[in-house]
Specification:
Shape: elongated
Largest sheet: 8 strands, mixed
Distance between the termini: 15 Å
Number of helices: 11
CATH class of the largest domain: Alpha Beta
Number of domains: 2
Order of helices and strands: HHHHEHEHEHEHEHEHEEH
Strand content: 5-15%
Structural class: alpha/beta
CATH architecture of the largest domain: 3-Layer(aba) Sandwich
CATH topology of the largest domain: Rossmann fold
Helix content: 40-55%
Number of strands: 8
Strand order of the largest sheet: 3-2-4-1-5-6-7-8
């Protein structure tokens, strides 16, 4: 189910008819099958029922407007402008499980920051996956950016923390604005690798006391409710400061955004960027209003 498909199902359900239990039940089914999750679905339906009662709504079309408002209340706290002007170099650590699109997101982020007239350096801290370094070097070439990798410093013998440490020192020497540090994908159950990522963060702070300035978790929109458990595990290990949600094109159900918002309702983690396609420019700042409007288009 794509967002378009979800939007069509919602628009069809809320285009006519009266507000009754059948309507609420159908709405619940649509939300749950779109990966909104049980907690967020329950919260949305309770909020809708309350609004219907308070405002005396009777028609399904009125419920559509109310649903937009309720979704906005849930998703808007995730919307934050990414500010990289507070430090130089501004060090961004990228993390996540295998296969979510971390390295691709690094390349797209580099392009995004360059469009803001920032200079960028890439650190190839994923030394596990054979193709990761090559992939990052290709992104570097596409963006005309230097990449610090195992190859550029043979003595580091594949230690990701040392490579990222070197990249921060190189950025200082070259007066670079932003360092993007890629790291290897790891499952949250691989405890030794979760310990390693904590070590990488500690080493970054040795190169620059205030760094990393952002720790961004990359989540795949297709993983549904697994995304919320990944967020919890990585946040416990690293204190995640922001999220990139990839693959919101194609088959993505997208409702996971609501699940994430609900999980961290008391203490929201910014959803800085969403990936909407394969192109280098297909990484956009998350805009809750635009996202909800696109859903009902």
């Amino acid at each position: 189910m794509t967002w378009g498909n979800l939007g069509r199902r919602l628009s069809s359900l809320l285009s006519n008819g009266k507000i009754d239990e059948n309507l609420y039940e159908e709405l619940e089914t649509i939300l749950l099958t779109a990966d909104v999750g049980i907690h967020a679905t329950t919260w949305l339906l309770n909020a809708l029922r309350k609004q219907v009662k308070q405002e005396g709504l009777t028609n399904a079309t009125e419920l559509k407007k109310a649903l937009k408002e309720t979704l906005s209340a849930l998703l808007s706290p995730l919307e934050h402008t990414f500010d990289s002007s507070t430090e130089k170099p501004f060090v961004i650590m990228i993390t996540g499980v295998n296969g979510v699109g971390k390295t691709t997101s690094v390349g797209k982020l580099a392009n995004y920051f360059q469009s803001q007239k920032k200079s960028v350096l890439l650190a190839a801290g994923d030394t596990f996956r054979a193709a990761a370094r090559e992939q990052l070097i290709i992104w570097g070439e596409r963006n005309h950016i230097s990449v610090i990798s195992q190859d550029t410093n043979k003595k580091q013998s594949g230690d990701p923390a040392a490579i990222i440490f070197d990249a921060i020192n190189a950025a200082n020497a070259r007066n670079i604005d932003i360092v993007l540090a890629d790291t290897a994908g790891r499952l949250t159950t691989q405890l030794h690798l979760m310990e390693e990522i904590k070590k990488i963060k500690r080493v970054i702070s040795k190169a620059n006391k205030s760094a990393p300035h952002e720790v961004l978790l990359v989540l795949d929109a297709n993983t549904g409710q697994n995304a919320t458990s990944q967020l919890q595990a990585f946040d416990e290990a690293l204190n995640i400061t922001g999220i990139i949600l990839t693959k919101l094109d194609g088959t993505a159900k997208g409702g996971v955004i609501a699940a994430i918002a609900m999980q961290r309702k008391q203490n929201p983690i910014p959803l800085y960027f969403i990936g909407t396609g394969e192109d280098i420019k297909d990484l956009q700042p998350f805009d809750a209003k635009k996202f909800i409007e696109a859903l009902f288009d």
